Write the structure tokens for this entry.
Amino acid sequence: MISKLNEAILRTEAPVVVGLDPNLKFIPDAVREQAFAAYGETAEGAAEAFRIFNFAIIDAIADLVPAVKPQIAMYEQFGLPGLAVFDRTVKYAQEKGLIVIGDVKRGDIGSTSESYARGHLGATQVGDTSVRGFDEDFVTVNPYLGSDGVKPFVEVAKNEDKGIFVLVKTSNPSSGELQDLMVRDAGGRERPLYEVVGGLVDAWGAECMDGDYSNVGAVVGATYPEQGRILREIMPHAVILVPGYGAQGGKGSDLKHFFHPGGLGAIVNSSRGIIAAWKEERYASYGAAGFAEASRAAVLAMKEDLRQAWA
């Protein structure tokens, strides 16, 4: 699957993933009114507003980027109607030729982690029938429970030709409370925890190679460029999923060490900087009715900015 993602990055000349993290305040009044007219101010109405919004943005950006990344929490807050729209968003994006990274941050032990992996990447046997759940192409995985929590995802990814991105150094300001703690690795060296996790990602990835890169990637925030440089050396075969670009302060010039020459090695996420672009002053000319066109313009601007990262 990572080869498919890399081919799409090269084809679009865009190491960009659009985060489909809708919020009702990002959605124009006309879209909300359309959804509420059909379903009322209910969970079903909010979910329908998300669907209309997501589908319009996907239509506007599908030819520009290789992938989208829906964050499942935004949908789960509306219960089953929200999860139904998460599922419809995944499938609609795939129909449009996009790779889908499910931002689910799952991780547990034993059969629980295996069930998460099957539910999001694989299939479960029901009698003589193989039943698929959400069926994303990649998912994000929390490694806090260690190999017990990650290995089931690696196994399903190998069997299904899917992929995972393991949280290593996240973009949020408090990530250092745990991720920067100094610990002793298996060789007795004292290192930051994120470096130890990076070493584990490299080892897990060796079991799941797909060409020059592994189907086991890593999440490293754009807000920590120096840590990104170190982790790029520790994980030479991992594609890095980079949050924190744009609204959180990261920019293309910060990401030189995340990429390999030619623009591979990383894919950069922007969520509200793209899906809520119509609310920004520089895209105000599109108006609320042109929210999808504003998202397209924001993607084009992001692509140009990211050229600084490997030019």
Remarks:
- Residues 43-61 form the longest helix (19 residues).
- The CA atoms of residues 104 and 181 lie 25 Å apart.
- The radius of gyration is 19 Å.
